[in-house]
Amino acid sequence: MSKLLLIAFSPAEAEAASGFAQSFGMPFDLLCLTGSAPAVGAEKATEANLEAIPPADGLGTALAAQSTEYSHVAAMSSMKAKDVLPRMAALLDAAMVSDVIATPAKNQYQRPYAAGAAIATVEVTSDKTVMTIRPAGFPQGEPNPNGSTEATSLDITSKAEVTQAAQASGGRPDLTQAKVVVSGGRPLKDAATFEELIGGLADHLGGAAGATRAAVDSGIASNELQVGQTGKIVAPDLYIAAGISGSTQHMAGIKDSKVIVAINTDGDAPIFESADFGLVMDLFDAIPELKSKL
Ligand SMILES: Cc1cc2nc3c(=O)[nH]c(=O)nc-3n(C[C@H](O)[C@H](O)[C@H](O)COP(=O)(O)OP(=O)(O)OC[C@H]3O[C@@H](n4cnc5c(N)ncnc54)[C@H](O)[C@@H]3O)c2cc1C
Questions:
Q1: pTM for the structure as a whole
Q2: Span 92-108, mean pLDDT?
Q3: Which atom of ligand 1 has the smallest separation from the CA of 186?
């Protein structure tokens, strides 16, 4: 029987991916790994009540064991899902499709490739499909009561061990789920300036801070803030790019943003080709002025 299992690493992910699950065209169950399962219209919602997300090897094996009866398994595209779901696909002998943005026909999936410069339509011929999805491509989910909710305990045995976990974002929302993202590039000079200007504006707007790889490689911003092809994929309502040239690799991570605002001293910078609003201005003047006016 065709049935989808939606795996959510958090309740917020379940809500974000619910539009996909509701429009996918088959009944679905929800497995929420942490927190309470929100009302997204699942036939059955299961809560694993994990205190933290375990290493990918053990979690992938445990989740594969929970997924045997499903024809399709999906999770929202995230760094964690990208670690865990391909392991599940291998264990389930399933096809793996990453970063799905649309499902044009049965067994067909669209996904960006070449840093988002092209869209591939992938046809799956195997019985089982495991996928990560980018929710921005799907309709907004409607709150809907779940059929039933129960608790489950995952049997997780891992060869890896988490020795330390650090949260550098100072309580800011998760980049991949934030409604507002303020990102900074190479001109930010150092970590303190980045935190004052980019972090400060992000806090002002209740958003997350992001960075380019150039800023990360220069030690201006920490690694987990990198947005782009080899960083995080974001889909906020508002993306503010300050001192960012707009490389293909950076743009691959922000394509799904609803409104892009660029602040750059160079009026010919490629970022202006994709920006909805552009400010040709020095960010060291523009950001304090923006903050004072907001
Ligand atoms: C395989 C591969 C993967 C990559 N993955 C990623 C990725 O995931 N994410 C990513 O971001 N990059 C990635 N890159 C790097 C990417 O190619 C660019 O080098 C990088 O995005 C450039 O970052 P930047 O815009 O901060 O710096 P720059 O390209 O140096 O641009 C800085 C911009 O700031 C402007 N500027 C300068 N001073 C000011 C000022 N005072 N006020 C306002 N504007 C100012 C300049 O006009 C310029 O446009 C990848 C590269 C490769 C090869």
A1: 0.79
A2: 96
A3: 26
